[in-house]
Amino acid sequence: MCTSIILSVYLIKAVDIIIHRFHQVEVSVSRQLEMRTTLHAGYPNPFSSTLLLSFTLARENRVTLTLTNTLGVVVRKIHDGDFLPAGSYRSTADVGDVLPGIYCATLTTDGISISQTLLKLQ
Predict the structure, then answer these.
(1) Which residues form the domain of 16?
(2) Residues 17, 56 within the same domain
(3) What is 35-93 written as a DSSP string?
(4) Which H or E element spans position 95?
(5) How far apart are CA 75 and CA 67, in angstroms?
(6) Does residue 15 surpass a pLDDT of 70?
(7) Dihedral angle at the C-alpha atoms of 83, 84, 85, 90, nearest 10 degrees?
(8) Are residues 86 and 98 in the same domain?
(9) Which of 5, 30, 45, 110 has the most neighbouring CB atoms within 10 Å?
(10) Same structural domain, 25 and 53
(11) How far apart are CA 66 and CA 105, in angstroms?
């Protein structure tokens, strides 16, 4: 009886240690992900009259966020060299007058350029 109680205590402690270690790993991974400059998925995609683009900056930087057509012509400059501190941002663009087709949203910061493809419907 006493042996089974001791074993149960050790087992509970071992599970607690494993959960604690998993939690530490999960937290450190999410902190590393938060520190990256990223361009999140445009919403909605496909879009019609309004487009929401969100991004994260790992550190303060000058930011250019553009929407270009398949020929590389800039149809919207959402941010044009704006100096922004590190953090997360959401930008809305009025794109009701943009023709239907395939577009590219590009986030450019200090030496980094991130792009994604978006589709405009009528």
Answers:
(1) 1-34
(2) no
(3) TS-EEPPPBSSSBSSEEEEEEEESS-EEEEEEEEETT--EEEEEEEEEEE-SEEEEEEE
(4) none
(5) 6
(6) no
(7) -170
(8) yes
(9) 45
(10) no
(11) 6
User: Which tokens hold the place of 70?
Assistant: 């398949």
User: Which string of b and e fits 25-44 if b means at least 16 CB within 10 Å?
Assistant: eeeeeeeeeeeebebbebee
Tokens representing 63 are 């930011």
- Only one residue has tokens 């520190």, namely 35
Collapsing DSSP to helix, strand or coil, 96 comes out as coil
Q: What pLDDT digit, counting tens, does each position of 29-72 carry?
A: 445 445 689 999 999 999 999 999 999 999 999 999 999 999 99
Which residues, 6 or more positions from 37, have their beta carbon under 8 angstroms from its beta carbon?
55, 56, 57, 58, 59, 61, 107, 109, 112, 114
Helix (H, G, I), strand (E, B) or coil at 103: strand
Cβ neighbours of 55 (radius 10 Å): 22
Do 13 and 69 lie in a common domain? no
Handedness of CA 74, 77, 78, 83 (dihedral sign): positive
Q: What percent of the chain has pLDDT over 90?
A: 63
